[in-house]
Write a structure and sequence with these properties.
By secondary structure, the chain is of the alpha/beta class. It folds into two domains: 56 residues, Molecule: Ribosomal Protein L15, Chain: K, domain 1 (Irregular); 75 residues, Ribosomal Protein L15, Chain: K, domain 2, CATH 3.100.10. The chain is built from four helices and seven strands; from the N terminus they run ααβαββββαββ. The strands form two sheets. It has a four-stranded mixed sheet. Strand 6 and strand 7 form a beta hairpin. The N and C termini lie far apart (100 Å).
Length: 136
């Protein structure tokens, strides 16, 4: 039987059956159609996190991002001087990782408690940018 003859078939189906000739009927829909009906096991097995929200995006305007420097980097930044102005270098906060063996006077906006301990133990001091606080 030729293809043309086969497609003559009955007048409603033209030889394709009842659903095969209607769009994506034979394959059960296009894309994710039926994901909660006849393709539910496919979703459970291959797409376990398909529904719902995952994680969150916080507004970047609400975050405070500091440019930081560690105590261990201060001696290389000082380069033989007795004082370091981190604010002029664009550093906002001093953190306490590393060792400091030289007494330095450091000017920075914010610092951690551990950084203040290590600078004071080396005989130095930290000065706030507006000179409100001073650690010795």
């Amino acid at each position: 039987m030729s293809k043309a003859n086969k497609h003559r078939g009955r007048c409603r189906t033209h030889g394709r059956g009842h659903k095969a000739g209607r769009g994506a009927g034979k394959r059960g829909g296009r894309g994710n159609a039926g994901i909660n009906k006849h393709r539910v096991m496919t979703r459970i097995k291959y797409m376990p996190n398909h529904w719902g929200m995952h994680g969150f995006n916080r507004n970047p305007g609400l975050r405070t991002v500091h440019v930081t420097c560690n105590v261990g980097d201060l001696e290389t930044i000082a380069d033989g001087k007795d004082s370091v102005n981190l604010t002029e270098m664009g550093i906002d906060k001093l953190l306490g990782s590393g060792q400091l063996k030289k007494a330095l006077t450091i000017t920075v906006e914010e610092w951690s408690a551990k950084a203040a301990e290590k600078v004071a133990a080396a005989g130095g001091s930290i000065e706030g940018d507006d000179d409100e606080e001073e650690w010795e």
